[in-house]
Specification:
The protein is an alpha+beta fold. The chain has helices at residues 8-16, 45-48, 62-75, 79-90, 94-103, 106-130; strands at residues 2-6, 26-28, 33-35, 54-56, 133-137. The chain has a three-stranded antiparallel β-sheet with strand order 3-2-4, with no helix packed on it. Strands 1-5 form a two-stranded parallel sheet. It is elongated and about 50 Å long.
């Protein structure tokens, strides 16, 4: 399995983006960078179809995001807060209501974002592994190590 070092912040952002913009993003497997065809000068849509060089960043599906919130809520020790979170997930606009509920608990909110990022990293690791790549996280975006 080939190793690839990536700075994950932009990738995790694009994995969560449901606006459609994220569907245009790729990882350059040679450079270990996020690229956007027709925005970045050195890659076109045709280039991006080269699966040996470019890995499409697939946004997670809404049910996957919902599952992450459910799993996090289930892990909350306080019965009262856990019930509030599950109540938020059962109402209309569950993503908005869940995040609004979390806003009342800053420490828990921080824990959720760490948990969510951890789950997204696992999803990305699994997706890259299917293509023969082992993910290593860069600690800074300007790292020259690939």
């Amino acid at each position: 399995m080939k190793k690839i070092k990536l700075f994950l912040d932009p990738i995790l952002y694009y994995m969560e983006d449901s606006s459609g913009f994220a569907s245009l993003c790729y990882i350059d497997l040679l450079k270990g960078e996020v690229v956007l065809p027709d925005v970045d000068e050195d890659i076109s849509d045709e280039d991006a179809e080269n699966e040996d060089r470019y890995f499409h960043i697939e946004p997670i599906l809404s049910h996957e995001g919902y599952e992450i919130m459910q799993d996090f809520a289930a892990s909350v020790e306080s019965d009262e807060i856990r019930d509030q979170m599950f109540d938020a997930l059962e109402r209309k606009k569950p993503f908005f209501n869940f995040k609004s509920t979390l806003a009342d608990y800053p420490d828990l909110q921080k824990n959720f974002f760490e948990y969510k990022d951890s789950r997204l990293k696992e999803i990305l690791k699994d997706r890259l592994a299917e293509c023969g790549y082992e993910l290593e996280e860069k600690t800074t975006q300007n790292s020259d190590e690939h």
